[in-house]
């Protein structure tokens, strides 16, 4: 869920090499990655595959996150469709399966799939068939700047509950520090807060029950309470000025540059914030902190329930025959270990997590290993139509123009309409 403009991507030297001569078979590969170190590892994997498959060329293509979501459905219907593309799984994946735009990879991955973490592979499995391969696990939490917390007299290690978190926001404001940076224009960064509050309040049973229409569905009391807790935060005006017009990456840059004390984000921001900081260094390990998302009083979710993604890759229907082989080589143990050693991912290949050296990424891997339930992002799990309503409602709550009850009603109405 990370983006840059195409021009910035090229100017920053982040684009994968695409100038090789046209081969007999070309695998067009669409991604959303912006980290130059990750792309360097990807380049090596591409070159190794091409060297072992004469006549095959891998042609990387980049779209920023929101453009990717907006254009993918149309691209998959076009003659110029990508052969392999990024996925957050969930309801969007299920819609793609129903639309018949994906290759069934069950036979091509037989045996190989056994090398992957079962829970990660399950995210790309439906009706007993494998439709894609996972690539990495991630988790949402609160990044914080230890120096700014110290200035405000806040101990980040003691922020455990929602009341603790609201108290920290107030202390930071009293010290003249912007508490939170967020990309409100993209809306989904705000939905991370709403999604997690719903998880803390209702837990796995609450979410699954809502999908079945139980206890008022997504308009039930647990979802109303979660929205009202979000409104509690919004009423404190904790975000940077103009946050509703700010895109995700520049907003994350504010945190990286020490202009906001916190950001609610996906764990990959640990590396991203360094790449986009004004000094290209960002917050180092001595300064950046991590708070597991706070618990709610009376919440039914377990403290060990987690929110995040299991991201991976899909192959489009009719893709060049070597595409599944490239995908397997791309999600191979050696590549995963390089990415894990660099602190870029929590890997999905069994045993590759032993390569993680970063203390921060070890923390994330540990939290995921202890997870009692891993909730996918609502805008992916509930499908694109309902996901848009969740994101819109989250932005409305954050902007102070919608109550928790009205947000819950809007999401339930969208869910009923589509189901």
In short:
With 419 residues, the protein is α/β, with parallel strands linked by helices. It has 17 helices and 13 strands. Helix 2 links the parallel strand 1 and strand 2.
Account of the protein in words:
With 419 residues, the chain is of the alpha/beta class. The chain has 2 domains: 6-137 and 310-357, 3-Layer(aba) Sandwich (D-Maltodextrin-Binding Protein, domain 2); 140-307 and 382-418, Periplasmic binding protein-like II (D-Maltodextrin-Binding Protein, domain 2), CATH 3.40.190. Helix content is 45%, strand content 14%. The chain has helices at 6-11, 36-52, 65-75, 90-99, 118-122, 146-152, 162-174, 188-211, 221-235, 248-256, 269-276, 323-330, 333-341, 359-369, 378-381, 384-398, 404-418; strands at residues 25-31, 56-62, 84-87, 125-126, 129-130, 132-137, 140-145, 262-266, 288-291, 305-307, 310-315, 346-347, 373-375. Strand 4 and strand 5 form a beta hairpin. Helix 6 packs across helix 7 (162-174), helix 8 (188-211) crosses helix 16 (384-398) and helix 16 runs antiparallel to helix 17.
Oligomeric organization of the protein chains:
single chain
Radius of gyration: 21 Å
How is the CATH topology of the largest domain named?
D-Maltodextrin-Binding Protein, domain 2
Overall tally of domains:
2
What proportion of the residues form beta strands (DSSP E)? 5-15%
**Secondary-structure-derived class:** alpha/beta
Shape: globular
Please bin the fraction of helical residues: 40-55%
Overall mean confidence score, pLDDT = 92
Q: From the 3D coordinates, which CATH architecture of the largest domain would you assign?
A: 3-Layer(aba) Sandwich
Tell me the number of strands: 13
Strand order of the largest sheet: 2-1-3-11-6-12
